[in-house]
Amino acid sequence: MSLLPVDDALTAILARVPAVQSETVALQDALGRVLAGPVMAQHDQPPFDASAMDGYAMRAADVTETALLRVIGMSQAGAGFSGTVGAGEAVRIFTGAPVPPGADTVIMQEEAVREGDFVRFTAPARFGHSVRPKGNDFHTGQVLLEAGTQLTPMQIAVAAAANCATLNLAQRPKIALVATGDELVLPGNPLGPDQIVASNSFGLSALLSPYASSVDDFGIIPDDDDVLRNRLAVVFASEPDIVITTGGASVGEHDLVQGALKDLGVELDFWRINMRPGKPLMFGTRGRTLVFGLPGNPVSAMVTALVFIVPALRHWLGQAQAEAWTLPLAAPTPPNTARRHFMRAKLIHTAMGPKLLPISQTDSGHTSSLSQADMLIIQPEHDPGQAEGALVRALPI
Hints:
Blueprint: H1 6-16, E1 22-26, E2 39-40, E3 50-51, E4 55-58, E5 69-75, E6 89-93, E7 105-108, E8 112-115, E9 118-121, E10 131-132, E11 143-145, H2 153-161, E12 166-170, E13 174-180, E14 184-185, E15 196-197, H3 200-208, E16 214-221, H4 225-237, E17 242-246, H5 257-263, E18 267-271, E19 275-276, E20 282-286, E21 289-294, H6 298-317, E22 325-328, E23 340-350, E24 353-358, H7 367-371, E25 375-379, E26 391-396
């Protein structure tokens, strides 16, 4: 069986992702969520000409070196002056307060000298100075945040300023994780002969949780056909949107996952990708459920999740795909094979700017090198190797 090119596999996966579904969520629960529709301003901000300083509001034309202006009132935030400023008049004003009709300038209090009911100024007036015009921040009907935006604290703040108590957000998928293998034990347990600590589900849960409504870990399933089918049936009965298995995806006598998934009604779209690490990747569907069978080697599992599952989740939420970076190499890369290589690399900062330092370790079970990586250099098939300083594309981890 020929190996499916990486780009073709990703295209096939994205074609199976359903259209964005929305839900209404309270603003205080929206951090990190993705907008299903735009946030539009329902009012002008500020809703009136507002003072940017504590000081006095007046007509700029009335301010001269010797002029005394009569103070006729006060404008505070939440309690503006109700009258109009005329010739030779001023109003005491505070930051955020409405600039009263007739006034066109604010002079800060440090440049004002109060003399009873009058005020004079030690600096010239500049027309419009320290006045925030109505709608200066945003105006009615303006799109403040586009659909597909993942909300940061600053964007939550602007949505609040736009008077949005709730937001229209993309529904997040429910994910189920399963690890397979007789050799696996959970972290914190003593290791018996021939056993290793299971790490895949923990890394995958951390990677995928920001995109999911829940990530349920169904534990470790031993390499037994009947047990595997029964436990996977329980997983599917929980009605997840996405099922992810790790291990048992190859072709050995103990690699039983593909058969069990088919027995349970999973239709495989493809199996085996032209990449390293991560060649034995499976993808299919069971009804509306997307099913990913990841390799058991921990580096392979995490890299295939970064390359395929994260883009699928971004598509699910209506987010644009993350762009690969283009950066110079801090050291040369070796020649590549016929498979696309996602090479571990460190992002280092030099006097000439950021560069990528390739990590020479390529073993698919070498988790410590992956933990030190900031990026994955995308090394094309049959790449002859690149010299130090050459520009290469890389995915951020």
